[in-house]
């Protein structure tokens, strides 16, 4: 039965012409840099919450718990409800913002959402750098969350729509690479500013978030809109064709243009994308848009992203060593992201997800076993075993970074047809923010109560998601997004669901009012 899960689309973009032009590369570099915002925040929040000067000023109970209380279990030294609210409040704000971002992206374009997100992120960074109390820190987190809600919703859409089908995986994976670079930059800044005398280095860490946000916001002013949106907005086929020719570096774009027009005609019949995505014929897209980001988060990756320095301090490393350990794990992830960009369109999405899943399973179970044997409630873990945990964590983040990290943003955007694409991406980002909030809010308490069992729990989830990929996720490499429906009709499981809906709609294919006529110009293939 599982053999039917190995469904692959035709190679080479199904007859589309074109190449990766410098115009595409520059546009995608500017847009993809929005991933640095998300990554920078993930890295900074974990770093500053391990700095003694930051904890002493804003979270004194945690500071005293970490420094002096010998009766507190090693697993519980950072367990604080207020500290987790600081870390995770961003994600509730992002969850709400991304639902509004879907309407903005659909009506005003991908670029508009990017501009809004970047601008709000800049405002948030000001509150962070100038914070004098916890309330200003929370305002900082909420504004950053709103900014990320808009950018994370729109940028993966933008990248997927701008990229040639045969290189869509590599270009979209650039977003995850930028996230990884953002975390790496944050970790390096944290490591540097922690040495500043006077204990105000955390202000630099929080305020420097404005730098990548300013780059994205200014760059977005000059970004072109995607051909899909140009057609969807006002039916301007000539403008869309000129943009497509510029993006592909060829005049032979008629076949791709006709597919975009067809997709736009279907999209124009949809009044409520969120209600429409609940229809039975979109059931595969909805299930994947819900489960892929959910699985992404229950791998435990954000434990590493924003609690790595805290975790390494927990097992006995000093402040400087714990911050440098976070840098090391992120370097491994960044290299793995580059590997993913190179191989994703060659080997496909499924193989990377399956291999990365096995790698993460082994890593989580091994960390759990080491902690069970060598790390007790009291006393310090032997340094050799602390560094062994660091090595295993490097293997874990590498497995995530060439599989579930980038593909969480790629797969849902490429499987959703234009009429539900923006709504589908909002579902993805909303699930990411919601589950990240829950894990961010509960991880320190889980670590306190479940101890090493926390890592076995995450490992169990990775087993479940790897089985889901094996049985239910078809291969989509190099298949144009406008032709993705054929994947579901050939899949052993999903064809039973989408086939029934197609039979019900047979004979109802007349052109809807306001549709755009397909060009009769011969294809220049």
A few lines on this structure:
The protein is 74% helix and 0% strand. It has helices at 22-32, 34-48, 52-58, 60-67, 81-108, 110-129, 134-162, 168-193, 201-207, 210-221, 227-234, 237-248, 254-268, 273-276, 283-298, 301-314, 319-347, 349-374, 383-401, 404-415, 418-450, 453-472, 485-490, 495-505.
Describe the structure.
- By secondary structure, this protein is mostly helical.
- Helices cover 74% and strands 0% of the residues.
- The protein is built from 24 helices and no strands.
- It has helices at 22-32, 34-48, 52-58, 60-67, 81-108, 110-129, 134-162, 168-193, 201-207, 210-221, 227-234, 237-248, 254-268, 273-276, 283-298, 301-314, 319-347, 349-374, 383-401, 404-415, 418-450, 453-472, 485-490, 495-505.
- α5 packs antiparallel against α21 (418-450), α8 runs antiparallel to α9 (201-207) and α8 (168-193) packs antiparallel against α17.
- The protein is globular.
- The two termini are 38 Å apart.
